Amino acid sequence: MPARTTRRIAILPDAVANQIAAGEVVERPGSVVKELVENAIDADARHVRVAVENGGKTLIEVADDGIGMHRDDAMLALDRHATSKIRATQDLVGIATFGFRGEALPAIASVSRFTMLTADGDGAGTEITAAGGRIDQMREAVRQRGTTITARALFFNTPARRKFLRSAASEARNVWDTVATLALAHPEVGFELTLDGRERLNVAAGQAPEERLAAVWGRELSRTLLAVDQAVGGVHVVGFTQRPADAQPTGRRSQLFVNGRPFRDHFLVRAAEAGYRAAIHPGDRPSLFLDLRLDPGEVDVNVHPAKLEVRFRNRFAVERAIEEAIRQALGGLASAAHLGDAPLPATFPSWPPPTRAIEAPADFFASPDGAASVAFTERTAPAAPDAGEWSAPVLQLADTYLCYDSPDGLVIVDQHSAHERVLYEDVMTRLAREGLPAQRLLLPITVELTDEELDVVAEHGEALQRIGFEVEAFGGRTVAIHGVPNPHLRFDAANCFRDMVADLARGRFGGWSNRLERFVATYACHAAVKAGQPLDDRSRRELLVRLFACQLPPHDVHGRSTIVQLPREELERRFGRR
Q1: pLDDT band at residue 322, thresholds of 50, 70 and 90?
Q2: In this structure, how many other beta carbons lie within 10 angstroms of the beta carbon of residue 194?
Q3: Which pLDDT band, with edges at 50, 70 and 90, does 187 fall under?
């Protein structure tokens, strides 16, 4: 057996230490751009210009008009752990700047042919050149106030790292994403990005957030977004989120910031999606642009070498704030009177807050044989007044659509989608206080299930009972349903129960809160009046009144539109009047 070699502890040379730091800070050209642009923003730059060649492998140049450095500071900036942002240990808590890591500039200089040209505006500028971390020369130079940093031949002295870089096109895309993200975070700063001599981004300083978003993400996507502005506790959530009708299973863009710093957090994105509740289809993924503004002391931004992740002191409060902010924004979709790009009709009822709970008339959605069946019973505010207060005539088209005239055009409401939304919100209001009342059946309904479905019925019996289903084992794979929810006689309780159990067995429900929402969404879909069912005048008006009292009337529980408006201008155009 060979003898073990004794190894002595030694201090690493500065060149090696700088290259190790570079491995943490400088992963690829995009990370170099990120560090340099963030330093420019911290230097109060109003315009930042980025030029990249060959995906950043050949050239990276970042120039700004911020606060430059005089000669002594320029030399110190290339020493490890040199920074203008931190003076004491306590400064690491509540960091409000971006480029606080002292390793950035020396790390970049250690793996490139590096040039820094800087001037503070009080005298001559300074130019420093270095290669592989070794300073070649320092001389006076002419420059207006600001800093230009050039990194050529990235990783020229570490070929193993250079070998792991991706193609030039892939690295260029990453650079674009990096600059675009920082441009979104700082609409007060102008950005210019050139890739291989072609201008790819040019945005002016001082743009409004919605203008910057349209310039970076495109106007087509930006037109589908709603403003978010809600403070919950010590967390203020601002930004934009996508309208439910425009959410898609693919193509989602999501960007999170904390105090203007971009970061990634899958769980906060899920919290935002939870704010949609039953406003979108379960497979849809809305686009998000959210900036979380909170006390810097409540967030640790120094938990990731590239500062791509953060840690919150009270994560639950942040998740709750995001979910509530999204719900408020979607609720404002109705109160702000917008559907798609067209305003809601001016004749939509704007009811004063009721002084008492209101009970719907007993003849609402009467069964075909004349038996009365109440679809909406007593509920808490927001509630709608009696249908008799709806004065506009309401017509039913093809026993499916409710139509009425407004000063802005023709309004068409899908009766099934509308009733689905009303039932969903009504039941969710009840479940916040108590379970949904069940109707006992004279003869139980027997349903045969699979083994997996039997297991989930046994496991989730409490949730099913809260919805109104009373179920017990009947023998073998069969269960007996003794009680069902009773919205009206057209409700197919057996099919509704089968769909709920099948979704449970396939794992389509998440946590307890999401599970109840999915239960209620399935129930509302089955319980709502169907297309092709005639409604009398009183029922039509009652349905519209209840719909416009909902928190999110424009969409059903699947995210589909409940309301379509044909503007008067479009009617006039179709008939040649304009």
Answers
A1: very high
A2: 16
A3: very high
CATH number, span 209-336: 3.30.230.10
- Is residue 14 helix, strand or coil? helix
Architecture of the domain made up of 387-566? 2-Layer Sandwich (3.30)
Asked if the model's pLDDT at residue 73 lies above 50, the reply is yes
- CA-nearest of 262, 275, 300 to 254 is 262
Q: What residues are paired with 141 via a beta bridge?
A: 125
Rounded to whole angstroms, the Cα distance separating 74 from 361 reads 79
CA distances 254 to 198, 200, 221, 337, 544, Å, are 27, 21, 12, 26, 35
Q: pLDDT band for position 355 (50/70/90)?
A: very low
255 burial class (0-12, 13-18, 19+ CB within 10 angstroms)?
buried
Other CB atoms within 10 Å distance of the CB of residue 149:
25
Question: In the structure, what pLDDT confidence band is assigned to residue 129 with cuts at 50, 70 and 90?
Answer: very high
DSSP of 245-273: GG-BSS---EEEEETTEEE--HHHHHHHH
Name the CATH architecture for the domain at 14-203: 2-Layer Sandwich (3.30)
Residues 6+ apart with CB under 8 A from 217: 184, 253, 287, 289
